[in-house]
């Protein structure tokens, strides 16, 4: 039984006919695993997780066959019962730490708020717990930082505070939405190390939303590649990197500098992600796919089991049975 | 925090001297002979004329007059009223609590209702309520409040007989002015029903005086709230599993208050100007009515220093608002 | 996106394809329904004011001694010749309101002109001389802003004495600081732009820089402010009139009319309600127009939708 189970999730903004931002997404997260969701901007990575957290407001419409977390139906759970889970068992760290913290309150106040809400501690006990959390996220001089305001902290420091807030309720699943994108390159690795350390330490599941495949390769157990609101390939990490089955995954990998040894220019995929008005009838990648066939233009493929995971393609690459493709290793 | 206050205080000094210069010039800019203007219809013989000039210090060179004026102010001497022979400072002190009580009641009315309406309008953006609040507040902002006061008197006092027409309290009651605040004084006295009567006298003037601030605060709260609710930290607060009320009030409104507070401060000056009109309509014995009556009676010492006192009051209130602004906004407070 | 090739595309100067600035402005302005309603109402008021002697059914000061405090025509006891009733001296209310529009618009217009021109000039000086002159001007304006506008106007009228011209002067002085601040802020923003440097290098003199190069680019906020201070001028003039410090009776000024109507509050609601309603509607109409102007002129909001 997986911790998080998403079946056929779709999110639209506007009316029911609007083009979905997330389109028929299936996703599982198991206890204690690190799942990376990759894809370019606007591919629906963040929106999926925001839907789970209940952060999508009108005019957003969420539909799913199943959206269960730890045995609770997050699609129908409302109000107080829902808030018992959000921020406690299920927590999230956002992209830009400089705006994610409330400028009017001290760091201590904002961490203690979670502790009071979910752990029932107050006063000195809450303070003590907040201090421990700050120490856990390796903030130097934690005791004095409790009284600091967000504008007095650097970006990396703010992200550590945000992480401390997120792990305050001992979550079973932590979602990190591009946690290092807004930070200096030198800080990025530190924050990733901290997140992975926490993940191992507490045996919590971690969903890492990113577009940095290098990070995925080093950290994740599994990866889900998204394109235009759909999952196009799901697979185990080392295997998927060696033998991508979906052309889009292959293109993403080819765009990593380390993978293009010797090439004078990085490989790119021509064209852009389809918008509201130019959504193809068939496979969403068909206008850009180098291997496109007539069938791809006419019919939309589904996510089917492949040799190493699941893939949404009629003619997956690197498959042992396919004679006309490259031979499998 | 100390340097923050000191810096703001330093900025006040030139403004203060500017205002003394203004009130100093006031009496000297009157066209014609100031003594004759002040004496009005009364016949003035040359002897009295010279004495009056001497008494007012108008026969000395201008710079000396100004220095004398500042010297007098420094000693707390604001001159005396030509009408009552009372010291201007003393008259101001007796009348000011009435204006303060009225203004506080108006601000309370405008602040609570304006914040509430603004927050709800922002949360229900585009709803009928939202459009209603925006429409009413635009009308309130354009309101000639002297007419609004008459209209309310016509409806509630004359038509329905719910509230008294004028004054602070019925003549039946003999209230000893201990604090100057009628609501408190009536509570301290043992007159039965006096408090309720004072409250009934206060309601209409407070509504009239609070109308424009109400409109401004409601609009400002709405737009500030709409902006704040889009902020990332509000999303963070929701992701913590906090209750909607806590997200809206603790995380949203607290930050939306910063621009609202600025506007609130700017409204204090307008409030005192509105007090002049409101006090005239409701015969409210405060400094606004005092000033207008003194102008009518050509009581120039009162006009001159009354305006000075009111200007100082406005500066002082704006200063306090500035400090509050610093308290509400840690980023400002920590600025060098 | 592609046009049909059957009709030959006319070879035209591309600049004619864009709507003229005026037309573009109007398209933006007309999108705001409230602003258009305000404009229509103001057009009616302006028409009444311009042609008051012909529009008004009676002379504003003519006293019909047999018709004191006649109610409006649609009420019991109303007379069809006095559409909105008469006041305590038997004067036709509608005619007085129409003639009052003349005064209010005159006061508004005169005070806006009298504060806009010196305000722009002082603001330009303040912006172009940031060392000594600028801060001095701004300090003086700060002092004027320390007093609430109506109180300052009251103080000025207290010196000059009541009356139409003194009302205009008082209101003009009161609204001066906002123009100075606004102009200076806009000028300071423009002075760093490259086109100003280019004009300087081309040898433009100070006056040319001020009035030809920089000023036209600072006009949008000034136009909006002029509209808004037009409405507050009407309000302040009426308030002064109401306090007995403005235009003196029997001149039909809206605020002065209200002041004399106070005594009839129990008997004749129309002499109290109608002048105030006229003030409210005029001020509201101008404020609506001001909102529309701001949306249409503010380049930051323009094209943002």
Question: Would you mind describing this structure in some detail?
Answer:
- The complex is a heterotrimer of chains A (329), B (336) and C (305).
- Chain A has helices at 45-53, 79-83, 97-100, 107-119, 123-136, 142-145, 155-167, 185-202, 213-219, 237-242, 247-254, 294-298; strands spanning 4-13, 22-29, 34-38, 60-63, 66-69, 72-73, 90-93, 173-177, 205-210, 222-227, 230-236, 304-305, 309-311.
- With 329 residues, chain A is of the alpha/beta class.
- In chain A, a hairpin with a 3-residue loop joins β12 (304-305) and β13 (309-311).
- Chain C is mainly α and 305 residues long.
- Chain C is elongated, with a radius of gyration of 24 Å.
- The B-C interface holds B 14-15, 18-19, 21-22, 26, 29-31, 138-139, 141-144, 146-148, 150-151, 153-154, 158, 269-274, 276-277, 280, 291-292, 295-296, 303, 307, 310-311, 314-315, 318 and C 139-140, 142-144, 146-151, 154-155, 157-161, 231, 235, 238-239, 242-245, 255, 258, 261-262, 265-266, 269, 272-273, 275-277, 279-280, 283-284, 287-288.
- Chain A: One of its GO terms (cellular component) is plasma membrane.
Strand content of chain B: under 5%
Low-confidence blocks of residues of chain B: none
Shape of chain B: globular
Radius of gyration of chain A: 21 Å
- What does the main sheet of chain B amount to? none
Strand fraction of chain A? 15-25%
**Number of DSSP strand runs of chain A:** 13
Proportion of helical residues of chain B = over 70%
Secondary structure: elements and pairs:
The complex is a heterotrimer of chains A (329), B (336) and C (305).
Chain A: E1 4-13, E2 22-29, E3 34-38, H1 45-53, E4 60-63, E5 66-69, E6 72-73, H2 79-83, E7 90-93, H3 97-100, H4 107-119, H5 123-136, H6 142-145, H7 155-167, E8 173-177, H8 185-202, E9 205-210, H9 213-219, E10 222-227, E11 230-236, H10 237-242, H11 247-254, H12 294-298, E12 304-305, E13 309-311
Parallel strand pairs in A: 3-9, 3-10, 7-8, 8-9
Antiparallel strand pairs in A: 1-2, 1-4, 1-5, 5-6, 10-11, 11-13, 12-13
Helix pairs in contact in A: 4-5, 4-7, 5-7, 7-8
Chain B: H1 2-28, H2 34-39, H3 46-56, H4 62-74, H5 88-123, H6 128-141, H7 145-159, H8 182-188, H9 194-229, H10 232-239, H11 244-282, H12 287-296, H13 300-328, H14 330-333
Helix pairs in contact in B: 1-13, 5-6, 5-9, 5-11, 6-9, 7-9, 7-11, 8-9, 9-11, 10-11, 11-12, 11-13, 12-13
Chain C: H1 21-31, H2 33-50, H3 52-55, H4 93-128, H5 133-146, H6 149-160, H7 164-191, H8 194-201, H9 206-214, H10 219-242, H11 254-261, H12 269-297
Helix pairs in contact in C: 1-12, 2-4, 2-12, 4-5, 4-7, 4-10, 5-7, 6-7, 7-10, 10-11, 10-12, 11-12
């Amino acid at each position: 039984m997986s911790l998080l189970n998403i079946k056929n999730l779709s999110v639209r903004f506007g009316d029911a006919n609007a083009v979905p931002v997330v389109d028929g997404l299936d996703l599982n997260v198991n206890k204690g695993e690190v799942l990376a969701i990759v894809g370019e901007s606007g591919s629906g990575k963040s929106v999926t997780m925001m839907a789970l957290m209940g952060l999508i407001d009108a005019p957003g419409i969420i539909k799913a066959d199943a959206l269960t977390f730890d045995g609770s139906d997050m699609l129908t759970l409302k109000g107080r019962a829902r808030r018992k889970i959000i921020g406690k068992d299920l927590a999230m760290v956002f992209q830009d730490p400089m705006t994610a913290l409330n400028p009017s309150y001290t760091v201590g106040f904002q961490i203690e708020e979670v502790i009071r809400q979910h752990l029932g501690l107050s006063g000195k006990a809450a303070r003590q717990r907040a201090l421990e959390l700050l120490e856990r996220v390796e903030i130097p001089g934690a005791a004095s930082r409790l009284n600091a305001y967000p504008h007095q902290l650097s970006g990396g420091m703010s992200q550590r505070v945000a992480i401390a807030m997120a792990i305050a309720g001992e979550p079973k699943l932590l979602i990190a939405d591009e946690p290092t994108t807004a930070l200096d390159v030198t800080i990025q690795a530190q924050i990733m190390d901290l997140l992975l350390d926490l993940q191992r330490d507490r045996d919590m599941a971690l969903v890492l939303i990113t577009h940095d495949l290098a990070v995925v390769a080093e950290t994740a157990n599994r990866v889900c590649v998204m394109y235009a609101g759909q999952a196009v390939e799901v697979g185990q990490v080392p295997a998927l990197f060696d033998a991508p089955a979906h052309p889009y995954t292959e293109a993403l990998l080819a765009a990593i500098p380390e993978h293009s040894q010797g090439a004078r220019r990085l490989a790119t995929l021509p064209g852009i992600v389809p918008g509201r008005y130019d959504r193809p009838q068939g496979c969403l990648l068909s206008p850009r796919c180098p291997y496109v066939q007539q069938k791809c233009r006419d019919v939309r493929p589904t996510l089917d089991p492949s040799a190493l995971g699941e893939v949404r393609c009629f003619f997956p690459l690197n498959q042992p049975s396919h004679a006309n493709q490259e031979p499998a290793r | 925090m100390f340097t923050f206050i000191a810096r703001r205080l330093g900025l006040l000094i030139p403004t203060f001297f500017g205002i003394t210069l203004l009130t100093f010039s006031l009496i000297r800019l009157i066209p014609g002979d100031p003594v004759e203007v002040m004496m009005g219809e009364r016949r003035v013989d040359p002897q009295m004329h010279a004495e009056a000039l001497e008494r007012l210090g108008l026969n000395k060179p201008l710079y000396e007059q100004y220095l004398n004026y500042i010297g007098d102010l420094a000693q707390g001497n604001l001159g005396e009223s030509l009408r009552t022979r009372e010291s201007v400072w003393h008259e101001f002190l007796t009348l000011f609590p009435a204006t303060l009580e009225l203004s506080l009641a108006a601000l309370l009315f405008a602040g609570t209702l304006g914040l509430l309406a603004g927050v709800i309008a922002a949360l229900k953006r585009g709803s009928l309520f939202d459009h209603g609040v925006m429409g009413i507040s635009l009308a309130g902002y354009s309101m000639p409040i002297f007419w609004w006061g008459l209209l309310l008197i016509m409806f509630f006092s004359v038509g329905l007989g719910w509230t008294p027409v004028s004054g602070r309290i019925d003549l039946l009651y003999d209230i000893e002015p201990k604090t100057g605040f009628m609501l408190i004084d009536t509570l301290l006295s043992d007159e039965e029903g006096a408090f309720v009567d004072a409250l009934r006298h206060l309601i209409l003037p407070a509504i009239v005086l609070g109308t424009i601030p109400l409109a401004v605060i409601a609009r400002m709260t709405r737009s500030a709230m709409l902006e704040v609710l889009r902020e990332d930290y509000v999303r963070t607060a929701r992701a913590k599993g906090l209750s909607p009320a806590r997200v809206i009030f603790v995380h949203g409104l607290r930050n939306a208050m910063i621009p609202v507070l600025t506007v609130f401060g700017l409204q204090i000056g307008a409030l005192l100007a509105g007090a002049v009109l409101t006090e005239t309509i409701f015969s409210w014995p405060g400094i606004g009515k005092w000033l207008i009556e003194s102008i009518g009676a050509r009581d120039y010492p009162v006009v001159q220093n009354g305006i000075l006192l009111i200007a100082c009051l406005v500066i002082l209130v704006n200063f306090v608002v500035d400090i509050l602004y610093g308290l509400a906004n840690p980023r400002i407070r920590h600025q060098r | 996106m592609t046009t049909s090739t059957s009709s030959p595309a006319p070879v035209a100067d591309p600049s004619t394809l864009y709507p003229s600035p005026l037309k573009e402005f109007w398209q933006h302005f007309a999108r705001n329904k409230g602003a258009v309603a305000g404009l229509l109402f103001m057009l009616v008021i302006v028409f009444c004011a311009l042609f008051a002697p012909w529009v008004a059914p009676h002379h504003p000061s003519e006293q019909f001694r047999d018709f004191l405090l006649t109610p409006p025509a649609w009420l019991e006891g109303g007379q069809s010749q006095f559409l909105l009733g008469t006041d305590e001296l038997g004067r036709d209310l509608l005619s007085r309101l129409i003639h009052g529009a003349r005064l209010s618009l005159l006061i508004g217009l005169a005070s806006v002109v009298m504060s806009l021109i010196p305000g722009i000039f002082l603001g330009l000086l303040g912006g172009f001389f940031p060392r000594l002159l600028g801060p001095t001007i701004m300090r003086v304006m700060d002092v004027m802003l320390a007093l609430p506008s109506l109180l300052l106007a009251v103080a000025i009228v207290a010196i000059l004495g009541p009356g139409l011209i003194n009302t205009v002067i008082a209101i003009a002085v009161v609204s001066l600081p906002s123009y100075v601040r606004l102009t200076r802020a806009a000028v300071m923003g423009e002075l760093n732009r490259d086109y100003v440097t280019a004009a300087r290098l081309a040898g433009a003199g100070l006056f040319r820089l001020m009035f030809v190069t920089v000023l036209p680019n600072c006009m949008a906020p000034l136009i909006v402010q002029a509209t808004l201070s037009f409405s507050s001028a009407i309000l302040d003039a009426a308030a002064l009139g109401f306090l007995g410090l403005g235009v003196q009776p029997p001149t039909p000024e809206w605020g002065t009319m209200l002041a004399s109507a106070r005594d009839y509050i129990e008997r004749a609601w129309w002499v109290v309600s109608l002048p105030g309603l006229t003030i409210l509607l005029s001020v509201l109409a101008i404020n609506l127009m001001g909102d529309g102007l701001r949306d249409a002129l503010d380049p930051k909001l323009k094209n943002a939708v």
